[in-house]
Amino acid sequence: MKDAQMPSVTNGRLQLAPVKARSAKASSRRRPGVEGLTGREYQMLLILNSYGWCTPDMVWRVARFHGIPAKCNWVYVLLAGLKKSGYVTTMRTLNGKKGIVYAVADRGLAHIRACKDNLVCDTNVLKDPASMNHFLALNRIMLQLRSEFKAHFWLTDFQVRADNMQLGNDGLAKDYDSAAELVMPNASIRIGIEYELTQKKGALYAKLCSIFAAEKYLHLIIYFLESPNLLNSIAPHFRPVGGLVCFTNYRDFLLDGTATSAFYWYDEELRTASLREIMAHVAQRKKPEYLPVNQLRIRFQA
Predict the structure, then answer these.
(1) Does the residue 205 lie in any domain?
(2) What is the total count of domains within the chain?
(3) For 186-219, how does the pLDDT look when each residue is reduced to its tens digit (9 = 90+)?
């Protein structure tokens, strides 16, 4: 008989041993809520707490990024069990009859707090159900970029806010929608991500320019525009920060990835290149190292 694979302790945290997919059915048959959550269920809960609204496929892919050899079918089983026991909730997407998305319910948030894995910022997306499309868009952007590049770190909206609350002046200049350090062929690049659904007032963009100008850690801030019509109305506001900011169409990016066209300011002129070319160019800039303190660590519950 082979020895069972045991979790190891690193920096005081119990690190997760690889999960075998065949055990998912056994987990789902346990009476929910009687003995707490299984390690696998708790992993799903932590992912939803950090990434906001997710489809089951998003949860599965994030789990794999974190080293969990999950199969999509048992992710569905685990999420259904969590929904039945009241730890997560669901909504239908607005653009079709299918699409069910998941988020942590109040009971799940209380469980995470009891296990001392909660972030210092408020992660309750149920306070604003309209945030669903915002989180889904950011998660799609994340999955596309991570399908092209390895990541030293990826911080979601919640993790950026938690970092800034804890680090203060040593944090990022803004609570970006996401932030990441990606590995390119010849360098690593740290990016901030903003998803823009509608145009804001000019005074807000002027304030953002002053904030971005103070950013010391990021090489590039990428604006993903929901509509191509937003480019001409938004880009002129960011002329003062030059090539620190670039703009690309969100829908085109989902189709073509970083091969899609992006726009940036150079010598008072709005120019275009592929997003990948822009990223490769700005990655050569020297920037101080950034060490996030709120990276998601998937582990067994305490």
Answers:
(1) yes
(2) 2
(3) 899 999 999 999 999 999 999 999 999 999 999 9
